[in-house]
Amino acid sequence: MLLEREGYQIVAECDTGVDCMQAVRTLEPDLVILDLGIPKLDGFSVIARLRAARVATRVLILTSNDSRSHAVRCLQAGAAGFLCKDDKLDELPTAVKAVLSGYTYFPQVVVSQLYETAGAAAEPAENASEISKLSDRELTILGLLAKGMSNLEIAETLMISHKTVSTYKVRLMQKLNTPNMVSLIKLAERNGIPLS
């Protein structure tokens, strides 16, 4: 409603990343407003597939996760903008206008983080450097684990086998140096994960 009041035409709404990809192929929208935590194909995978397909559609991330590391990751992945749902939604039309005009729209702290030394912007969260080294898929699975999803639920959401999920869990505990799942989930929550 907010965007339609500003004169924008909404051509589709999708519940999953797979549906989003199909809609982009069929409708060729100028802009996709994307949540990171969508099922079946997470937001990072959608961005990667859109880039690989070389479509002209630009991506604006709208998520409830305001973690700086996720905003940076979205910028690096190829998104044109990042907004947190917890911010005032009246900022959305401004972000949409900027992105459709060919600009990027990211929180200033994200831009600063890319150009300044790590200590200059703000105190880093615990294990933030290790989390920033995770692959997009590892970060997605960590977020789903932190939401309390089981291996089977994660497997169904991401369309992978539950054994693959188990492998990721072990790899995450090794990479983040956590002795068990409880520690892994607590670490994730302290760093602004899960995605949603």
Keyword list:
196 residues, mainly alpha, Rossmann fold, Arc Repressor Mutant, subunit A, 2 domains, 3-stranded parallel β-sheet, 3 strands
Topology record:
Layout (H helix, E strand, L loop, with lengths): L1 H4 L11 H11 L3 E4 L8 H10 L5 E6 L4 H10 L3 E4 L7 H9 L7 H8 L2 H4 L6 H5 L3 H11 L4 H8 L3 H14 L5 H10 L6
Tell me about this structure.
- By secondary structure, this protein is mainly alpha-helical.
- The protein is built from 12 helices and 3 strands, in the order ααβαβαβαααααααα.
- The chain has 2 domains: 2-121, Rossmann fold; 128-190, Arc Repressor Mutant, subunit A (Orthogonal Bundle).
- Helix content is 53%, strand content 7%.
- The chain has a 3-stranded parallel β-sheet, with helices on both faces.
- β2 (58-63), α4 and β3 (81-84) form a beta-alpha-beta unit.
How would you summarize what this structure contains?
By secondary structure, this protein is mainly α.
Radius of gyration, rounded? 17 Å
Strand order of the largest sheet: 1-2-3
Helix residue percentage: 40-55%
Number of helices: 12
Decide which structural class fits the backbone.
Answer: mainly alpha
Proportion of beta-strand residues: 5-15%
Return the string of H and E elements.
Answer: HHEHEHEHHHHHHHH
